[in-house]
Amino acid sequence: MIVSSQTLEKIGFEQVRQETLKRIYTPMGREWVERLTPVSTHLALSERLTQGQEILRLEQSGERLPLQQVEEIRVALSSTQASGAMLSVQVIHHIREHATLARILREFILRRKEQMPTCMNFAYSLYELRELEQTISKAISDHGEVKDDASKELKGIRSSLRRTRQSLRSTADQLLRRYRKDQMAPDEGATIRDGRLVIPLLVEHKRKVNGLLHDLSATGKTAYIEPAEMVELNNEIRSLEIQETREIERILRELTSFVQQTRPELTSNAETIGWMDGLQATVRTGSSWSGAYPMQSVDGYLHLKKARNPVLIQHLKSLHVVPLEADLLPFERGLVITGPNAGGKSVAMKTVGLLSALFQSGYPLPLHPDSALPILGGLFVDIGDEQSIENDLSTFSSRLKWMKTTLEQLSKLPQGEQALILIDEAGTGTDPEEGGALFQAFIETCLTLPQSVRIIVTTHHGSLKVFAHTTEGMVNGAMEFDQDLLEPTYKFRKGVPGSSYAFEIGKRMEVPDIVLNRAREIIGTHSDKMGQLLLDLEKRLSETEQARQTYEDLRTEAEKSQQEYEQRSSDLRRQKAQKLEEAYLEAERILKSANQRIEQAVETIVQQGRIDRSKIKEARTVVEQEKQRISEKKKTIKAKAIPPTQFRKEDLPPLGSIIGLVGSASEGELIEVEGHHAVLLMNGLRIKTPLNKLRLTGTSQPSAVKKGKKSPRKKGIVKNQTIQSLLDKPVSMSLDLRGKRGNTAIEELTHYLDHAIARGLFRVEIIHGTGEGVLMKLVAEYLSVRKGVKHFEAAPYDQGGPGKTLVTLG
């Protein structure tokens, strides 16, 4: 992506970067995050986003990549190429930690290859260096020290050193006891001077002992002497120490040579670990905002749902930030945002730019996953933060220079590549009329370029509002303002321009009426009326939105109550049917038992010669008649178990018939049957209800339907249906079932597809994840028999891979 460091700084990207660095484990990861910039190559971006999604699911399951803190080794690895190179013990210890970490990470991902298929590329890039680990571990301890048994020679040298040091210490202790007895030595113990063990003597007795004077105390009262009895032992220790050093150096050179042979693999591992560390840090940062990955838009559609600004979240240390709800359709190339000062115009504009940059850097975003963002090839920002009179000229000159540079960089983008331009307070810094005209001309020029350029502008200039209203591809937008409280709500509304509310805010700030009235006279009656018109329009839109929200809440509550009622009714019917079935089985058992006893009694009587065969035949005829009577009674009881006003699927009249609901006077047209449910069209609403909740009416006949034409409707119904279509929220293009259990997921999928088909959607996406494949299999089985599903297939890897199913409806 073409984007400057100044642009990233202005939209808040650098603040997010600093927050990300707090979650880094390794110096390679820190370097990766410090170099991080948005990418626009579709293949690279798709891989990064998919890897991020897999790490995010891992995070949400309570796990993380088993990263740990390690030191930088790449500079040391480069030095091993020199002849006779020798790495220090600590560096070799750090190299072993790198090799161990690479192996642990590789094994961790390989054990989760089903859950993390894209992250398998990390596992394939990590080299397992067990031989190097084992070789270093034989010579160097876990604390970074050369072991005694690193070699046979070193073991012998250190054994001799220990014996000689013990002998020297014993000799020193004996001498000290003798000199203290003669009151020639203080209470101090033996100590080290110039690498040799010496004993303390009172300075006045130093010439009484045959030995070497090494040092005097700071007070001059104590002399440190190496007696003749200790000289030979000290010399032997020094000789052994030299041998030890030479042997350690020999061992380290051997290990360095071994490390040098695996230098390419260790360097590659360090780069891969840095990538994994940096990517996990970005995911963890996004997770701290309760972030999610939006959909990629291929046609330029921009849709932000419940989007919040990450920098604002970090600043307030709270997720309770007013969300941004905004969308720009593919043909809407420009948006002009107006509204009061400090009303959120700049924040809304920056939010779009920041979320776009973070999205193409691999971050989960603080928004609803149904959101969609286009892939940008360039991001250009002009935010004039200098507001002082002294800097007006320099500020405006810099904005002109920015225009020139931006047009030059846009020309470098491939044709059809998408770019986003953000301009804050367009037209300021010079004469308002000239400034507005200049920025309008700049916008018009950008819209004529062969590249797909989209522009978002904040301004107070009325000329730009008019330009947005009259120009194809441009659209107005406003930040809401509470006219009762005279304060901003920070909510964005698309489609209408906003007022600056200068007079209203002035009144709230208790500016004298004489000033406000004179100001209104100066701007003129027409302008004042236009401003008042905007105020009235915003107020009515606000009232309409509140009414719509109230309606939605009431409808949701009614649907919930209906579902609860149907559930209770269903439970009662099920219990009643179960009791009846138990009674039927018991009656059949009794009848069968009685029949057997009758047959046994008849056979006994015949055998005893007490009745003739004709009587037996008559008795059996009576029994069969009784069985038939009981069977008919059973059918009658079963029939009574189902109210006569209800019926089963096979009893349904044809589509188009008028049918009512049990317990209600409401009636509607039967338009669809799905399993054990029917869909009725009642007053413009699609009502889905169980079959046993339906009742026949006196007019349960198909309504007149002409070929190729819709069924006739009453005028009032059409009107209600139109109102409903305006009030209904649009159906999302995707459904996220991750985390849902089998029955719940399929029930939610059923309702979602009902709504999608009713709204005439052609294609939708079902996000189910991979996991163990259970949910994916359930979704596939359901879609294979679902009415209205024309085709379905797993999404390509650049659109989500096997964790998402693309469904074509028709």
Task: Describe this structure as you would to a colleague.
The strands form six sheets. This protein has a six-stranded mixed sheet with strand order 10-11-12-8-13-14, sandwiched between helices. A five-stranded antiparallel sheet has the order 18-17-16-15-19. The chain contains 23 helices and 23 strands. Helix 3 crosses helix 11 (263-287) and helix 22 crosses helix 23 (774-785). Helix 22 links the parallel strand 20 (734-736) and strand 21 (763-767). The two termini are 38 Å apart. The protein has 810 residues and is of the alpha/beta class.
Overall mean confidence score, pLDDT: 82
Number of helices: 23
Strand content: 15-25%
Distance between the termini: 38 Å
- Helix share bin: 40-55%
Rg over C-alpha atoms, rounded to the nearest angstrom: 43 Å
Quaternary structure: single chain
- Give, in spatial order, the strands making up the sheet with the most strands: 10-11-12-8-13-14
Extended strand count: 23
Structural class: alpha/beta
Biggest beta sheet attributes: 6 strands, mixed
Query: What best-fitting shape do the alpha-carbon axes yield?
Result: flat
Catalogue the unreliable spans: 386-393, 639-646, 702-729
Which secondary structure elements does this structure contain, and how are they paired or packed?
Elements lengths: L4 H7 L1 H9 L5 H8 L7 H19 L13 H6 L9 H22 L9 H6 L4 H10 L12 H30 L9 E3 L2 E7 L8 E6 L5 E6 H34 L1 H25 L7 E3 L4 E6 L2 H7 L7 E5 L5 E5 L6 H15 L12 E3 L3 E6 L8 H21 L5 E7 L7 H16 L4 E7 L3 H9 L3 E9 L4 E8 L7 H7 L4 H11 L1 H83 L5 H29 L16 E4 L5 E8 L2 E6 L2 E6 L3 E3 L18 H13 L6 E3 L5 H17 L4 E5 L6 H12 L3 E6 L9 E6 L1
Parallel strand pairs: 5-9, 8-12, 8-13, 10-11, 11-12, 20-21
Antiparallel strand pairs: 1-2, 2-4, 3-4, 6-7, 13-14, 15-16, 15-19, 16-17, 17-18, 21-23, 22-23
